[in-house]
Amino acid sequence: MVALSQITPPIPLGALDGRYRGAVAPLVDHLSEAALNRERVRVEVEWLAHLTSTQVVPGVRALTDAELARLRAIVDDFGADDIAELAAIEKETVHDVKAVEYYLKRRLPSVLEGDDAQEAAQLAELIHFCCTSEDVNNLSYALMVRDAVTRVWLPAATGLVDQLADLAHQLADTPLLAHTHGQPATPTTMGKELAVLAYRLRRQLRRVESAHYLGKLNGATGTFGAHVVAVPQADWPQVSRTFVEGLGLTWNPLTTQIESHDWQAELYADIARFNRVLHNLCTDVWTYISMGYFAQVRGQGTVGSSTMPHKVNPIRFENAEANLEVSNALLDVLATTLVNSRLQRDLTDSSMQRNIGTALGHGMLAIDNVRRGLAGLDAVPEAMAADLDANWEVLGEPVQSAMRALGAQGVPGMENPYERLKELTRGRRITGDDLREFVRSLGLPADVEARLVELTPAGYVGLAPRLVRDYLA
Fold it and tell me: Which keywords describe this protein according to UniProt (predicted)?
């Protein structure tokens, strides 16, 4: 038997790097192991630039603009050869962050103007100066997660919600028999039901958009101990704050060796909540498809069933459900695990954070499937109308409500409206003629009687169309 593990190029172990690579590839730029190393290089480069430009360490000159440009080009040009070189260095150091330090020290002479080896050696001591590995790692992860969320996840999620909102507006006036507890209930419109989901999703998007990405740089146990001994005259909290904020992050002044990761837990909880609402959308649309309210036509030139030619299965929504569940399982364990650390530090978080890309990847795959699924739907108003016309009993609610209002005004003959409508409608189907005959027997004021006689299930949608237009911008 062929050992598949020995085939080159390597066969992906997981579906995200295999079957579904196209849907999640943009996350590789931000949440892969290579992206982590690139961000480590970025943090080390910016820390060196910050120390020299502020001249925190006495006697160290500021780098010229040209030198800074060459220094930052190390990050911009980080590619396959650099990844391989770092891997080779790490085999010797058996320490990933230390490998980044050595990698940069190799390049410093080519960054500086002239060929002063002594100056290069002196400046090299400011690479990783007073840093513990977690100073570099926490900032790297904050940058990675920020960019993955704001540049990849949020645009995809926002595009999905906008697509859903457009569909809600298109169907704002399309009457729909509602179902509560799976039973026929007060009619609504398809657009209003979709608008509810779009509104919920947008609320979660706003929470994600307002997220704070925290970072720290304060040494081995969060005390600036080495910093103060090395350069006692510097205002190290201020140096740290300006550096972290200069990266576009929020400074955390009080930590142990690690940044506490509370912001990550908050963010992942919000994304997971978005996923759960999206899962609700999938199950609702799946049900509407099964009821014939949507037809899957556009973009469905595929095999629905291997044996039943007539079928077009709602696979996009089913695929999305599965991936949302995997995504949320990972997001939940990230949120609950990352906020805990034994005393000053343990390595649980290091292993756990390597799953962030997988968590967001399954969510991204779900978003892609839902978008494709929605794009393939055609509403079938005739099916919705047929169900409405078969359930005239749902008009028992407005009739008894009108009777209650009249009874409260002192109009005679309006006693026990709920019970009378229950006797008429519960447990049996009635026709429009049945309802109109009942209404005409009540002795209602002429204007009320006329209004109720003209009422149909399809016309009993309240303010549903207006709610879509007024509150789903």
Answer: Lyase, Purine biosynthesis
